[in-house]
Design a protein that fits this description.
The two termini are 23 Å apart. A two-stranded parallel ribbon has the order 1-2. Helix 1 crosses helix 8, helix 4 packs antiparallel against helix 6 and helix 5 runs antiparallel to helix 6. The radius of gyration is 22 Å and the shape is elongated. It has one domain. It is built from 9 helices and 2 strands; from the N terminus they run αβααααααααβ. The protein is an all-alpha fold.
Length: 213
Amino acid sequence: MNDATPCACTTLRLSATTLSELRARYHGCLCLQCLHALAHDDTTGSPPSAATNPIDRGLDALTRGAMPLAIGVTLLLCMQWPLRDLVHAGSTQANDLAQWLFALYVALSLRHATRHHAHLTARGDLAALSNPTSAQRSHWRAIGASLCLLLWAAYLLIAGWPEVLQAVRSGERFPETDNPGYFMTHVAMLLLALLATWQGARDLWRALRPRHA
């Protein structure tokens, strides 16, 4: 208490996202070495919890590879006007292709956003932000948020499987234009459900087994 220099932990600066994850996962204090590593990750822009599971690493790589889909969808939608008014052909095909590409993009990006806390959700850190001392409340909110995601995704997966199977078998086409590929929107829905089920299960597992430092 009477040292000339402040406590080492007070010189560290961690982001609100990192602090909320620590409150949800740990009880007690972390060593300075761990805190320094986390502060370094925040400074360099590295994710606060890098994937260690090979499936998570593979899904992260898949998501990064799918990022150009956003550019492709944008270009296809922008091409509708010249295709319709100048070329007089291909505008409906461009629109329908953009639809199922966008569905695939959303299916992949929602899991990525959930993993990195990058979209609106019932996040456990909201309680901690309103009351920074409420680690217990943050922990239970993390459990509740992951459980809600898991139950919704599991229901979507079970209830939607027959419809997806039928659409793929019949090669379902777009109802208004009769263009092929509408079944891919069903495939994207199933992919979203699979990824959300995996992410919900992973989040719930981590929330139920907080690490003690």
